Amino acid sequence: MNNGAVTTVLVVEDERDIREVLRRYLERAGMSVLTTGSGAEALTLLTSPDLDVVILDLGLPDIDGLEVLREARRFGGLRVLVLTARSELENRIAGLEAGADDYVTKPFSPREVVLRVQAIANRATVNAAPTQVTYGEGRLRINDDRHEASLDEQLLDLTASEWGILAALCGHPGRVYSRYELVNRVRGYEFSGYERSIDSHVKNLRHKLSPDGMAIIETVTGIGYRLGWSKDE
Predict the structure, then answer these.
(1) Pick the CATH number of 133-227 from 2.40.50.140, 1.20.120.520, 1.10.10.10, 3.40.50.2030
(2) What is the model's pTM?
(3) Which of 19, 116, 118, 186 has its CB 3.0 to 4.6 Å from that of 164, i.e. a possible disulfide?
(4) Which position has the higher pLDDT, 159 or 97?
């Protein structure tokens, strides 16, 4: 993705007025903006090497927005903010579990959207392990600079939320993190209802860490989660 100073945002929204409002606000904030009202065109634009963030409406006229979201998740460094009229909690959680980095419902404040885009574009992993730290006698490797993790020398295909959870736990092996703490460490701010989806993210993360997922990420009943493997000396 873009390694320069300017954040490049793709706005995928079928309502032209909304696209233009977001474009103006994002450009005022110093961002470079691409726009489209088509899911098919969005799939093509996802391959842009300078793209950093996608603002994605789920209710597109030609392709289900979740399909675009799943395709965007193939690009490891690409962040996705879902923007939709689907305001029910279960829909929000479904979008986050599908790999969205954030979720904003209509009607919305353009200024809030800009702030959230800035947050996910610039999010630093607080208390994450330093570059290339290993755990479990070298089996688990965390590279903070690249936001990469590997198990048994196999690179893990993690969503931004899964990476954030794993990096936070690896920052302090053995320390118990509540779901609320993980929400704030992954998102950078409080998000009502998101605590429920932490369990789903952990489930997916454990699956990718299998067959040792349960040993690497331990459940502390009634509290939250901790890293079960020790940091290598």
Answers:
(1) 1.10.10.10
(2) 0.58
(3) 186
(4) 159
